[in-house]
Amino acid sequence: DCNAVNPQTMARVAAEIAPSGCALVDAGIIGGPPRDGYGPTFYVSGPQARDFAALGRLGLNIAIVEGPVGAASAVKMSYAGITKGLTALAAAMMLAASRAGTAEVLHAELAKSQPALLAWFERMTASVAPGSFCCPRRSMMCRATQASMPVQTNTSSSLSALACWRSNCRS
Question: Which of 45, 108, 112, 122 gets the highest tally of CB atoms within 10 A of its CB?
Answer without folding.
Answer: 45
